[in-house]
Amino acid sequence: MKEFYFNKFDNRQPYQAIPENKFRTLLFQSCGIITIALGLLYIYWRWRYSLNPHALWFAIPLVVAETLSFISTILIVFNFWSYKDAKKTAPVHFLSEIEELQEGQDRPIKIDVFIATYNEDVELVRLSIIDAKKMEYPFSDVDIKIYVLDDGRRDGRDPNKQNMKEVAEEEGIGYLIREHNDGYKAGNLKNGLAHTNGDLFVILDADTRPLPGFLVNTSGYFRNKKLAWVQTPQWFYDTTEPEKLSAVIKSKLKISNNFLARPIDFIFGKIEVNEDIFGNDPRLFYDVILRKRNFYNAAFCCGAGSFHRREAVMSLALKDFARGFKELELELENKHSSNVEIHDRKKALLLKQEIIPFKFHASEDIYTSIMLHADKENRWESLQHPDIECKMLSTQDLDSWIKQHQRYAEGSLDIAFRDNPVFKKGLTFGQRICYFNTIWSYFAPLWIVIFLLSPIVFFFTLTLPVSAYSFDFFKYFLPFQIMNTITITIGCWGINTKRGDQYYISGFWYMLLALISVIRGKKVKFNVTPKDKTFGKNTRHILPHIILISLSLLGIGYNVILLCLDLHPTPSGFAANAFWTIFNIIDLSVMIRAANWTSMKRL
Amino acid sequence: MEENTINRDLAINQSKQDNLSATFKSKTENGSNAKIDLGPAFTREISENSLEFKRSGSNLKSIHLAGERFIIKDEAPMRSYETYKLIDSPQFPGVYFQGIQYYDLKNVFFINNTGMANLIDLLKSLLQKDVEVQFVNVSDKIKNKIKALGLDHIIICS
Fold this sequence. Notes:
The structure holds two protein chains of two kinds.
Chain A: H1 22-50, H2 56-79, E1 110-117, H3 122-133, E2 143-150, H4 164-171, E3 174-176, H5 184-194, E4 200-205, E5 209-210, H6 214-218, E6 227-231, E7 235-236, E8 243-244, H7 245-253, H8 261-268, E9 272-273, H9 283-292, E10 306-309, H10 310-335, H11 339-352, H12 364-373, E11 381-384, E12 390-392, H13 398-418, H14 429-441, H15 445-461, H16 471-491, H17 498-506, H18 508-519, H19 539-564, H20 571-595
Parallel strand pairs in A: 1-2, 1-4, 2-3, 6-11, 7-12
Antiparallel strand pairs in A: 4-10, 5-12, 6-10, 8-9
Chain B: H1 2-16, E1 23-27, E2 33-37, H2 40-48, H3 59-62, H4 76-86, E3 94-97, E4 100-104, H5 113-127, E5 132-136, H6 140-148
Parallel strand pairs in B: 4-5
Antiparallel strand pairs in B: 1-2, 3-4
């Protein structure tokens, strides 16, 4: 067995899902309403009374940013409103339990497990295969087949590539390839579905290792005959472990003895740093954001670790096929008058048209989810399962992290610009708002940039965006901010959101680039996330952060000099902006730390 | 009654084109096969592009598909090929006549979405060989489903 860096984490145990609590939910809802009320009051006051009339060029952008940010708060309260976990039931055995049988005799269900791969180490994929084979199911007559869907075509034809086919054969599972990469992962899944016949199918990525209970714990949900898919949380079992501060300093300064470590430990205690340095802990997303969307039937599919009803995706594919062909047909009829010509060309069009179960898109999972939710005839439902049923590898260097998150951002923004779910027919109000929330979060750099630049602008222009940092300002601002923090804390009860908050701010740059790229109409590329450590050059990702921090520190220094010389026109403005800047620097620095991070254990 | 209608139509068609060659198999009410021999060339053509609908079990609706371990190097156009290669019985009631392949869905009561996709694949694979497809004796339930999916101008039910 090949040695991987993550082998040592094999025995890590997954976290437990946060139990539902009616009282906590009620408390959150009450706090949420108060937060929105205080926020409305604050925003109203800001627009009506607080703008600095002598510096509207500065005041207006800031108040607009605050207003946009407040919309996020409203959306979060809406999203977090309540839990609605589905009742867990026993695994299904017969087809009649999950589908209305029409005239035919019943039979045990069939399940396919797809492991999608492209260029990952075949020994890494082998681990996923081995774990997939260990999946338990109580009924021996239920046909469970595992397939590797290899888009890298590593079937032995290229001696320079590892042989994936050989591994599949050694493990005794199916191996499917195609001769092109059209549609990326969605195309790969399409090919898999075209050659298999499971009633239900599981999607795993190359590094997704299902736990033995995956099928047992999730198949029962499909008794709800409207359920199209179940998404399980993606648990990254290899997130960075905390390291002792003294060890980090020793390593950075290349000191081998303990003469510095001991005083550090003595002064600061055994402080540990760098835990989950890349902010990969997915609990906030899966256990709160997505799970609470069950309340609106708006939990979307995230690809790996999802369990699907074939009939649902096929219904979507057929409708798309029919719609697409009809559009081309109409176009043809408008262009040509000869019936014979139309007939011949129709044939060609039909041959060209494809049945595509998952939308060919960089964010195929969320896009397909939107389309299924919007299917008025079938009213498909989705479910976020609360418990961990599989484990995955996290991105281990900043470059990979950025690439992965930039693809998510570009994919979601691309959907927003092309086929916005807010205006999509068939979606319920709750679903529209939840999808809007996802998309809106990717517009965040628009206001985060203003929040980051505002103190710097103040430091160098000595101009305030508000009429004054007076008692009035804090009277409106503080209750809203405090209540907002309390509400979010209750909403994310039991989860440390510190890293998430920091990455929300420090991720402004890649999100901004994603937004610009989509606005410019650049095609969204499907970058395969590296599953091993690449340690690429990260400087370009953190250059804006370094510039902003430098300018902030320079600005503070300049203002301190003015204060010392008693030349500063607004000391209260300096105090407020300096306080604000400290938070900005802390948040921005996390990405700089991540860029330079090397595990102590590697040294 | 419907079966009689097909046979009658076939008889009329045959009288119009004497040198037509294909095989048509259709189960009669007493279970025996009514066979019209129309020559070997089209027999191969039809059987190579046929799918199996099993009456028993849910395969009735899901049209039997490929085996357990295999490698496919192409997408949809190859799918039918792989299908017929691996199924137990490639015969499916149908007849080829004047560039149109007719399939008899008399014994098919339900087709699910995967089955519909397979029908389209079948249709496309025959269309590549300049053979159009029409389905006969299609139940109202199936017709309604085809219409609901918007496929009524693609899957032609006569």
